[in-house]
Design a protein that fits this description.
- With 160 residues, this protein is an alpha/beta fold.
- The chain has a single domain, classed as Rossmann fold (3-Layer(aba) Sandwich), CATH 3.40.50.10860.
- It has seven helices and six strands.
- The radius of gyration is 15 Å and the shape is globular.
């Protein structure tokens, strides 16, 4: 979604990372939204290491309600979460956070993503990553979970 396409009724979430604007997380999330004809987009927040603590310590009191966390900050984000799902506790990182009543909750979706596939022998890190973004898009905006569309999402075009 281009900036001029964002309207007052466009649903928003945030992505936090070094290169959140041009990273794969935003790219796949926005492709999933387009493929599902959902009027939502991810606003990127590019930050450096020195800005992470200030950003995360204030997120609970901000207007942010949903934030994907790029891999480089996944472990550090745990320290700012009130609670974690079991996968995040075990893996030691979060894929995203949600803010409820000014409290930050962290989620890792490795288990849920891998559970989508019957034959794990063909899974690679990229496919699991796109599946996790699909799960987040479903959780927040009701996007379809269709693992058969992952090759389309990984490809260059989405005709949504």
């Amino acid at each position: 979604m281009r900036p001029e396409e964002i309207k007052p009724d466009t649903a928003l979430c945030t992505i936090l990372g070094y290169n959140a604007q041009t990273g794969y997380m935003r790219r796949y999330f926005n492709k999933i939204m387009k493929l599902n004809a959902i009027n939502a987009t991810a606003i990127a927040l590019n930050i450096k290491d020195e800005h992470f603590d200030v950003t995360m310590s204030s997120v609970g009191a901000s207007k942010v309600k949903q934030m994907m966390i790029e891999k480089e900050f996944g472990q550090r984000a745990i320290g700012y979460c009130e609670d974690l799902n079991e996968c995040a506790k075990r893996q030691g990182y979060v894929d995203c956070i949600e803010v409820h009543d000014k409290k930050v909750y962290g989620y890792c979706f490795d288990d849920d993503a891998e559970a989508l596939f019957d034959h794990k022998v063909f899974l690679d890190e990229h496919i699991v990553f796109v599946a996790k973004i699909m799960l987040i898009a479903h959780r927040w905006f009701g996007a379809d979970i269709d693992i058969n569309k992952i090759p389309v999402l990984i490809g260059d075009k989405v005709d949504g």
